[in-house]
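pinging the channel bc i need a second pair of eyes. not urgent but kinda urgent?? the chain im working w is below, pasted from the shared doc
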Amino acid sequence: MKILTSFLFVTLFFLLGCDQITEINAPQEKILNKRLIALPQPIGPSIESQTYTKDINGDYGGEFQKYYSYQSSSGQISQFADMDFDPGAFSGTKTISMTFNLDGAAMEFGPSMVFQDDVEYTYVISGLDLSGVNPNTLEFVYIDATGNMYVVEYDYVTMDVTTGMLKVKNAVLPHFSRYGFVN
């Protein structure tokens, strides 16, 4: 009887406990009915995206900062990114890439990987027209390959309509992908 009871318990445990597969580092809260904040188009000939790379040894950690700007009809658009890797974020040395795109207030990172320890990211964009952006619904999110958006942990998100500035401070990136501001 004990063997039969144990067998039934283990079977129920697997059937009821394993019906959902969730990646440990996957964002959980899906964002609905929000759009990526648009960036103004550049004046004259331009590059659609700019990628920067840096070798980081994940065992020791490191920092990767980049600045990118361009001229639009509304003025200078400036973007600053600062990524901090805690020691042990990943194993070995990897060439990390940061891509500034013109298709929205977002950044793409590579190579595709999940982190073993925190990677914190601060991102500032200025020179935007934020007149239609509601500061109460502004968020910084992870955007998957199909366009679904998920909440990301961060210290704070802020905006300044006067300077056209959006800022996220210390967003925790569980993996590399695309992250951006939505409203």
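so The two ends are 59 Å apart (CA to CA). and The chain has one domain: 31-182. — does that match what u expected or am i reading it wrong
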